[in-house]
Amino acid sequence: MSLVLEHIDLTVSGEKHISDACLSLEPGSFNVLLGHTLSGKTTLMRLMAGLDAPDRGRVLFGARDLTRVPVRKRNVSMVYQQFINYPSLRVFDNIASPLKLARVPRDEIKRRVEEIAAMLRIDHLLGRYPLELSGGQQQRTAMARALVKDADLVLFDEPLVNLDYKLREELRLEMRKLFRSRNTIAVYATTEPSEALALGDTTTLLHQGRILQSGPSDAVYHRPASAEAASLFGEPPINLLEVTITGSELRIGRTAFPLPGPLGSLGDGDYRLGIRPSHLSLTPLHDDDLEFCVEVGVAEISGSETFLHVASNDLELVLHLGGIHDFPVDSAIRVYAPSTKLFVFDAPGELVRAPSLAA
Amino acid sequence: MSYPKNYRKLLVMVAYLAFVLVPIYWLVNMSLKSNREILGGLSLWPNDLTLDNYRVIFTDPTWYTSYLNSLSFVSMNMAISLAVALPAAYAFSRYRFLGDKHMFFWLLTNRMAPPAVFLLPFFQLYSSVGLFDTPIAVALAHCLFNVPLAVWILEGFMSSVPKEIDETAYIDGYSFPRFFFTIFVPMIRPGIGVTAFFCFMFSWVELLLARTLTSVDAKPIVAQMTRTVSASGIDWGVLAAAGVVALLPGIAVIYFVRNHVAKGFALGRV
What confidence score (pLDDT) does residue B265 get? Predict the structure, then answer.
């Protein structure tokens, strides 16, 4: 059965935390909620779980209206950003507690706890107390507890944020595996676009309590509905330039460019041009690439890739380049944007044109 | 050349302990002497060691029942204070309700009044409802001072437990009482220890209310100790022995909560 949110509103002490959220989540799907801190991800999850009740709107599970059903009567589980376990219970009893409360027979509890613990590789720690474990092990315990009961809805609220990089990668891979064979609705909140792409069957973009866009992750990434959605779904965020098209001329600030072929169908007017940092290059690829003469601001070099911040009088751009490119500050360089990779949004920010995937 | 430095440190420590322990030593010293020796002159240790004073304490019913009276109202008070303060502190720590902050502070203002203020109302009230001269009367009177303190201390401990634990428990399907007693209470066990200790500390040493609200049947040890003057004068030895015995429960309680009290101080609520 699918979980449906219908026009959910939530106002907390005069402040609108969630406004008019509509969402439909299918069983067996892994859904990512992507948004900045304070965008309402946690609030939305709490509404899904039933920890909070909305001011307006309905939460439906299949045909059943769950809006006013308290969390205890729902079949959900949740993993928090902090490592939340019961410190007074051993790891085994921590994982077993939802089953014990559901009056599952003792030997079945043992079997299921051991099975899930083995999957999460904490089976050798079952006799310990949570506070004797490392952070990663504590979070695995919390995840095991969430997964051991066959919940209809499993919520992950940035569960990997407090873990170190390597563990995060490792757990992220496991998460996908754990859900492959389940008929559960998984919801996963994160601030990182790369997690949405790596994990999510679907991605929902949240910004200031509003759902900007929701759909299959690839589709949302490749066809962002608005400039806001595009800048949210990408790290570093997409470069947005205010442009004006008149006849066959594209004008950015005081600089005029010949209108590139793929944008030929656009009428005269003001637009916003979106260029992903990874699409910009230091060498021209096509004849009708947009060529920008800019000065280097900062070059952030992280291992094998470089984030280059450049600016001219009219624009500021961020480039995401493979390999190490070290430029002295203020050196003048040329940057090229392939015309086939341009996103075009109209002045209010709605998508007008997305680059076709074939190009 | 660390030797002289350590030596000096040791000297300071010994001097400190000597000053602290002299009164207690003197008490023990006196309790093991006969009255004649106590009044006879200065002796640093009992020349004529006797356990007679202790024999009086443990055989004379007016003495040992007063200990039992004290212990009974102190433990009643600890039980009542905790039973009332646990849910109250939970509410203050977890819920926002009308006037919660004012109420929390108002609770503490109860402790700002000297106990003597409440003497007359308690005396008159208890006399008219037939509670006068019972241990429960003293236990209830002390609650006026101990419950606010207990709520204050416990709230600090409870607020340091993340709210997500409560929510996880509800998500797992725990009922509130089951969650509270099997998950939550074990987490704040140090807090409960500290609270019980402070309730004990107030109730065990409080003299004014305890003496006024009792006469014969429920007379506490502190009151009994003020009534040792007889026709033949003050019985110094027995009084000293009573003092030594009165220290013992405190020592026992301190032993059990010694690790937790430091935590309580660290939380800034004690």
Answer: 65
